[in-house]
From TrEMBL:
Pfam families: Cupin_3. It comes from Methylorubrum rhodinum. Gene3D superfamilies: Jelly Rolls. This is (S)-ureidoglycine aminohydrolase cupin domain-containing protein. Residues 39-110 form the (S)-ureidoglycine aminohydrolase cupin domain. InterPro entries: RmlC-like_jellyroll, RmlC_Cupin_sf, UGlyAH_Cupin_dom. SUPFAM superfamilies: RmlC-like cupins.
Length: 120
C-alpha cells in the first residue's frame, strides 16, 4: 500500500556535502539535503535542502522546482542574466540550464526533481 509522505514526520536522513571543488567559485557552500521521496523508476524525487553562503557552477540534467523558505539566492544563466529569489519565491530550473547559484544569505528550500528519459 502506498502512503502519503509528510516531510515534517519523514524518517529520511539528511546528507551534507559540497559541490565538486572545480565548480566552487566563492565561499564554502556547505549543503544539506534530505530526500523524502524517490519514485520507483528513480526519475522523480522530492525533499528539502539548505545551503551556506557561497557561489558555484551548476549544470542541470533534470528539471527542478524550488520553493525558497529562507534566505536569498541569485541565479545567473550562462548569458549573464541574473534573477534574485527570496523567501517565499518559487521557481523552476529546466533541464539543460547552466550557470551559477550564489547563496547570498543562508537558504532553505523545498524541491522536486524530474529526470526525463534520455533518447538514443
Amino acid at each position: 500500500m502506498k502512503k502519503v509522505i509528510a516531510f515534517a514526520t519523514s524518517a529520511a536522513e539528511p546528507s551534507t556535502y559540497r559541490p565538486a571543488p572545480e565548480r566552487i567559485l566563492a565561499g564554502d557552500p556547505v549543503q544539506t539535503a534530505t530526500l523524502h521521496f524517490t519514485s520507483e523508476d528513480g526519475r522523480f524525487s522530492a525533499g528539502s535542502w539548505a545551503a551556506e553562503r557561497g557561489t558555484w557552477r551548476v549544470v542541470f540534467t533534470e528539471s527542478e522546482f524550488c520553493h525558497l523558505l529562507e534566505g536569498v539566492i541569485v541565479v545567473t544563466d550562462e548569458a549573464g542574466a541574473q534573477t534574485t529569489f527570496r523567501a517565499g519565491d518559487a521557481f523552476v530550473s529546466p533541464a539543460g540550464f547552466t550557470g551559477t547559484w550564489e547563496i547570498v544569505e543562508p537558504a532553505r528550500k523545498l524541491f522536486a526533481f524530474y529526470e526525463a528519459p534520455t533518447t538514443p
